[in-house]
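Example 3.
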Amino acid sequence: MEVHNLQELRRSASLATKVFIQRDYSDGTICQFQTKFPPELDSRIERQLFEETVKTLNSFYAEAEKIGGSSYLEGCLACATAYFIFLCMETHYEKVLKKISRYIQEQNEKVFAPRGLLLTDPVERGMRVIEISIYEDRCSSGSSSSGSSSGSGSSSGGGGGAGGR
Amino acid sequence: MPPGGGGPMKDCEYSQISTHSSSPMESPHKKKKIAARRKWEVFPGRNKFFCNGRIMMARQTGVFYLTLVLILVTSGLFFAFDCPYLAVKITPAIPVVGGILFFFVMGTLLRTSFSDPGVLPRATPDEAADLERQIGNPEDIANGTSSGGYRPPPRTKEVIINGQTVKLKYCFTCKIFRPPRASHCSLCDNCVERFDHHCPWVGNCVGKRNYRFFYMFILSLSFLTVFIFAFVITHVILRSQQAGFLNALKDSPASVLEAVVCFFSVWSIVGLSGFHTYLISSNQTTNEDIKGSWSNKRGKENYNPYSYGNIFTNCCVALCGPISPSLIDRRGYIQPDTPQPAAPSNGMATYGATQSQSDMAAATPLLQSEPSLTSDELHLPGKPGLGTPCASLTLGPPTPPSSMPNLAAEAALTDILPLKDEHVGHQFLTPDEAPSPPTMLAGSPLAHSRTMHVLGLASQDSLHEDSVRGLVKLSSV
């Protein structure tokens, strides 16, 4: 059902623009995205929801890259088995990436699609950006919305876009 | 929400979209032929791929074969000629330890050479356009010129990491701002994360994902070299005690060859191991060390912001830290209607070479473009098949000018918007007209880049289908 909703979004809406959330390197090379709220999303989604999504993603990535006892153990075990163990078993990082993609899918279904937005998993963009696609609803029946808001409003994304929050 | 509301109209749109994505093309067999191609076949960097994308190396592999030959021949001679004598005379543990060392050396060498060093995939056209807009705009405002210089002015971004100011450079080939510690390898034409150096001896770049294998390779090779050298000398000495020096040499001539090879190798390899041990303990890359990025000579306040403070942690992280999966999905199938990365400098990519494509087939019953694919196949990890026969495919084109296709692509990008409606016809033009030698593409950057941009526009629907499912296929080598 949720997928159906997003399919309808795709069918009925046209892509207006894409916003790219860049990486935040202030803590080094670990994977983190900027939580700065892009102005293009101003009328589309609440700042707090957006920040929460990005912060959750950041925490997932931090978990994937966490250095500690368990990651050392995995590294040593892998070395001891000449890395053959990865033929049978996923790395911790891969497991977390799967969690992330499930989370993004869930967020898309519950939060973003009803507002006419779509998140792309950063892993598909080489972990460089979180790509957010902003759709304009060209169908008058507002099919892309379910529940709360008809976020995608009219073409200029004016006042109506903020409705139902 | 009424799915049936406006039903007939929606159904009409629905089938239209699926037709677009599946293909407007003439013959299904052509679609199959294109659909069967994997992403490594259109990878924009200058790499060679073997075993259907499982193995990835640099273009020049001659020196790698030399390394292999040296190690195999020297070790082979050792096991064949010296070990029998030593096993009897001293202890059979000698060939055993030698054997273990040898397998470790070969394993780490192959692992270093064949794996993805941490290549950063190139930016998609949308990303590149967004960045260029951000880079170009202030300049335009300042100069009062219209937008769209073909080459954005060189730009650096400054970031403060742990109190140190680090400059992030914009890579013109990959159209991204390089993450800290990443560098563009001119030999492989890729941006590599935590770029250490390009090693011709292993035939690959050494970067974030294979640095530990490289280190273990040179470390174990030092041990092996010292081991063989020591026991060859021992062998000759023991024989000389029995039969005299010259006779000893005559009895085992292989020992001379081994001794010579090992003698010359020991200095360089042990030296290299020591150097990399120092680098690991201070968490620097060869690149940074050579440039003196964090050296005290630059200034009193200059320190390495990536170091964890103590040697032990630095070593643990470098050698036993988490391994990130490969960001370039080599073995995924190309979806004909998904965006391809920014114009490659060697004109290699014809269409659709991003990671999202592998998700498509599993994700989309709507889009009929990948009928032959099964989810099973997509979910198989891209591990090197140990027993599988490998066919090598050389993808290196002759050196095309790197700036030319970029300029042409960017020129084409700004004035091909009207082509959007024609995309149906154009979509598969380039793959059809491109014969297998990729050199042809370098000569037609305009046609290629036009198709590329058109594909970018046409493919957004399917791209977002990927996000909907959120499936991620990762190759783990």
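Chain B touches chain A through 69 residues (CB under 8 Å). The CA atoms of residues 134 and 452 of chain B lie 22 Å apart.
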